[in-house]
Amino acid sequence: MEGLSRPCARDGCQLLTQAILWRALTTRLKIEVLDGRHGDARAGDAGRSPIVEATSDTERWWGDDLDHLIVEIERGNGYAKPMTFVGTRMT
Fold first, then answer.
1. Given phi > 0 = left and psi -120 to 50 = alpha, else beta, which region is 28?
2. DSSP assignment of 71-88
3. pLDDT averaged per 10 residues, the chain (length 91)
4. Largest CA distance in the chain
5. What pTM was computed for the model?
């Protein structure tokens, strides 16, 4: 359950891109949840590039394929504070 509303996308194309990435993150990958803003650091460690088409004022995305995705949110998804979700391929 979301619990907290937030703007998430600037247009329909970005909203659809985010929805597809969230679906891949939550159904295909093992997720590590981190308190705070760790997207830049984790993306740099993993050698992942920003996903410009999905990044907005409230969500920042990184990844080069659907086997490793990182998203940093300001709030939402049940959290009232910044959070980072790191998804890696299940082995």
1. alpha
2. EEESSBTTBSS-EEEEEE
3. 64 93 94 96 95 94 92 86 93 69
4. 35
5. 0.87
**Residue 17 CB coordination number (10 Å):** 19
Residue 69: exposed, middle, or buried by beta-carbon count in 10 A (0-12, 13-18, 19+)?
Answer: buried
Residue boundaries of the structural domains of the chain: 12-89
pLDDT value, residue 8 = 74
Q: Which residues contact 4 (CB under 8 A, 6 or more apart)?
A: 75, 76, 78, 79, 80
Q: How far is CA 24 from CA 4, 28, 62, 81, in A?
A: 22, 5, 13, 23
